[in-house]
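Let's do one together. I've listed all components of the complex below, 696 residues spread over two lines.
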Amino acid sequence: MTIMTKFLGATAALALSAGAALADPALIYDLGGKFDKSFNEAAYNGAQRWAEETGGTYKDIEMQSEAQREQALRRFAEAGFSPVITAGFAFADPINNVAADYPDTKFVNIDGWLPEVPENVLLINFQEHQGSYLVGMLAAMESKSNTVGFIGGMDIPLIRHFACGYAQGAKAVNPDITVISNMTGTTPAAWNDPVKGTELAKAQIGQGADVIYAAAGGTGIGVLQTAADEGIKSIGVDSNQNHMHPGSVLTSMLKRVDNAVFEAMSGGADLETGTFMTLGLAEDGVGYAVDENNAELISDDMIAAVEDAKAKIISGDLEVVSYYANDSCPALEF
Amino acid sequence: MDKMPAWADAVLVPLISLLLAAFLSALVILAIGENPVDAFKLMVDGALMRSSGWGYTLYYATNFIFTGLAVAVAFHARLFNIGGEGQAVLGGLGAALACLFIPWPHWSLAIIGGAFAAAAFGALWALIPAYLQAKRGSHIVITTIMFNFIAAALLNYVLVNLLKPAGSMEPATANFPEATHLPSFQDMFATADNPLFRGSPANVTFFLALIACVLVWLLIWRTRLGYEIRAQGHSETAARYAGISPVRITIVAMLISGGLAGLMAVNATMGEAERLVINAAEGAGFIGIAVALMGRNHPVGVLMAALLFGFLYQGGAELALWTNIPRELIVVIQALVILFTGALDNMVRMPLEKLFVKRRAA
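Okay, and this is what the predicted structure of the assembly comes out as:
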């Protein structure tokens, strides 16, 4: 609450000094909404950390419709905000359309892809399959029923990418393990449907899964809740979700969107653009979360095995196959 | 005898409903500690006081005109088509296929071809529920809403597996070729020293929507088919007695309705995104129901209601941009307007009717 009040105060102050607010950063969340306890919230946390550490102010907005994407980009650019940071792949194309009109504004996109990156645009990608591989190993080591589950949000390549890394990790530990994979839906509503998440989790538990990894934005809240209610383990995503159900959330696959946002805001005018930035295990862009909420769930043996794999992935001795490489997964059928 | 004058029915009732909705919205805004007067000013300023704001208002309105007309036409035959969303999704697919695979030399030809493909796909998507209703008696409300989900799943499959450019993260088609890009209002009206409609998505499709309004009016009130549609809407048994085939009317009305909903995609795909994104219809099919209700299923009413909802969408976007009013609340405000103008229509109408009758009696 105090953070919220401080934040409201900060934006109110910003609104008052609208003309003078040159070169403040702006942050645009995707349709899932700011407080999805996952991807968008990670972006928000990064911005919040930046605001607290530097005393700076920023402007943010949640999307409601597709046409708004370009509108928000233009309005922020015209109002003098820079860098304009966007969370979610769907912003890549609108940024491509507007970037040339605002050469003095720097645009940042997280998760997006463009065939050619304009001069004033930075695209940040994460090696989610590497982090998912590690939590997949943890899931397989934890599972007693030899069955682990995956619940994705919207059925898109990005989420298959998560699932694929997870399945590879699980099968690296136990080649005979069964990986059940379900997607919540085929529309953006799938990012924010905790009820459906609950149903899918129950269905997977019915099939024997005793660890379920949710990569589904706000939908994952329902998955984690159900896992806690039914007494099985779950794995959170993007933000550290261990605290949501201590003792039930085995770990969280961290995607350090917060770091990316923090770095972009800190970079300010000096931010290097016109390129891709890829954040993997080596750059601490992805990882798994261990804190006081799950320390008892993860044994030293498990940590040793995962750290070993992590070192091998970083050194290149172990290659986690990316779903993008040929739009298919060696360890999982979709 | 116990009727109120036409002007009161068409103007006064919606106006009072709107005022009630605005009043309740103001209370809600007040309750979260924002100033409703400032919020309203911001909405008007953002949506109506700048040409770029108008550009967005008219863009949204164009979508709502098509989907509103779609619901209205079906409703004249007493068919409640709530599948506008799915029909618009399929319309988008039709427009995208036409734009991607036919080498159009000029946008003027592309809009005709794209509109034809969008309408055809939308109409075909409505044909199946129409057939099930006409021949099997499966209720159109149930089937059309289920077809929305099938449409979303189908589009998702096509985009992810067939039309997505390699390497792209987003389930969307490649950009349409340059020649199919429809001129926006900016291209049409902006001059070097007067950059009207800058960056806004309103485009030539708006005029297509206006033409659709005129054609729907002609169809419903000036043609034999329109008469038959209305006859079935008023009394199916009477219509059948008069020799009007309910099967034929159900199917034809739904085909027209689906075609109109599909046309919405011309605006959203060829006019705005210039590619097909998965979320292209984004609820306009459902807003169309409210627009048709509020517009009394008359093209002029639909046009006015669509403009109002366009204003609410664009004004709501401005609120989200520059205030701390959360987006959920903006949805609440939009829902209040729908509630009062659509669902609670009789709440205002009945007392008003009594009032007029009493005055006349006195």
